[in-house]
Amino acid sequence: MRRELWAGLTWTGVMVLCVALRVTLGATDTSYLVTIAPYMLVSAGTPIAVLVGTLRHRPPHRAGWFLLAAAQAVYAVADGMTVRDDWLGSFLEPTPADLVYFASYLLLSAAVLVFIRRRTPGWDIPSGIDALVVSISAGLLTWIYVLQPLTSDSALPLNAKLTQSAYPVLDLMVLILAVRLVMGTGTRGPVLWLLLSSLTLMFSVDTAYAVEGIADGGAVDEAYLDAMWMISLGLLGTAALHPGIRRFDQRSDTALPDASPARLGVLAVAVLMAPGVQFIQWLRGEPVSVPLISAACAVMFLLVLARMYGLVTAQRRAAVTDSLTGLHTRRHFTQALAVECRRATRAGHGVGLLIIDVDHFKKVNDGYGHPAGDQVLREVARRLAAGSRAGGVIARYGGEEFVVLAPHTGPGELYALAERLREEMAGLPVDIGGDLLSVTVSIGAAVAVGPDPEALLHDADEALYAAKAAGRNRAILSPAG
């Protein structure tokens, strides 16, 4: 592992050296081409670093990294065109370099989008809502302090307004995707944080550059802005050279991220940003953007409510769902059984219950290991869900035991269901690492027309023990049913 880190450390060292040279040369009377050379070295080296890291570490899915390398290559070309324009004194907007920069932003956005889709199953709506809340807050700041001053500047021609406004809009698009990337599920590690740091720094420096332009320059030394851009580019190269890119886009098992304290803190800051900006405008005697800020607050409030609803729904689902099999939990089954028994008493119809036990399950665990046992339980659960009729409740009762609650069911119909499920279990072996394992079940069935769920459970349990005593792989209906 240490040897694999040397390339990234070397690139980082080169980047730091170039940053120091750019800042040092910026304070001297050195010619423009010499002063800008360290910046161009990092700019041109970044796509090479990304490409080398991708080819060296060979991540399973390389499309995102190749798009990232292409984006940085196009960005380096645009930087070269900008240096030429600065050297020749050509500033008619939009310049060809602007159009090339725009293309690099689109490629960069495509790369981040590929990472998001690879890392997270489904659309991951909770993370999308979180990212949207942060993006609305960032978009509000961008509009108030960058876009509004640009668009209201009567001295700027229309083409210059459009060109200069495009950069913060594209930056905001990249930031939205970056926030969505980090808030989604997937592996955490140095690669993710390096990418996030790079994209966040790029957004911050681009915004500072735009604000400086609105303020007629002079607020920030250009050498320091270049240094920040160089660090942003360098971090991208370091991320690609890190061996962690092999696991970076591994698909997560779940699409529901936790509501961690850090996530809630970010959302709190984002939501409070809008009223904070309004207060600062009022405090400084500036025109207060009441309609815009009020609309932003209202939208973020609704998004936070939607997020809270999603969290409550997810917690409720987790409380009634067995994490291994995806079936209902014993607690949910117990509640449903009591409800159905009361309904059966009032309506005078039967309620059927099956208790299903996987035969010789301990031998599976002992002979093949617990992961194989888990696979068997998942397969049994899948077949139960596929073979049971609609309207029933299927749950994992405990260990290798399952229950099927079948309302409005008589003894004959319940026994037929039990036999069908038993045959489906025994009819198709389970593939365990290439070994075909025959899995059978014993089933106890009982029907009740009364309010006592404990009596129904007792009858079905007695029938299950009778099925086991009779040799297993069979279904027995309780005489009480």
Automatic annotation (TrEMBL):
Keywords: Membrane, Transmembrane, Transmembrane helix. The chain crosses the membrane at residues 36-55, 62-78, 98-116, 128-146, 166-183, 190-211, 223-241, 262-282, 288-309. Pfam families: GGDEF. One of its GO terms (cellular component) is plasma membrane. InterPro entries: Diguanylate_Cyclase, GGDEF_dom, Nucleotide_cyclase, Rev_trsase/Diguanyl_cyclase. GO terms for molecular function: diguanylate cyclase activity. It comes from the Bacteria. The keyword Lyase does not apply. Residues 349-480 form the GGDEF domain. One of its GO terms (biological process) is negative regulation of bacterial-type flagellum-dependent cell motility. The keyword RNA-binding does not apply. PANTHER family: DIGUANYLATE CYCLASE DGCM-RELATED, REGULATORY COMPONENTS OF SENSORY TRANSDUCTION SYSTEM. NCBIfam families: GGDEF (TIGR00254). This is Diguanylate cyclase (GGDEF)-like protein. It comes from Actinoplanes campanulatus.
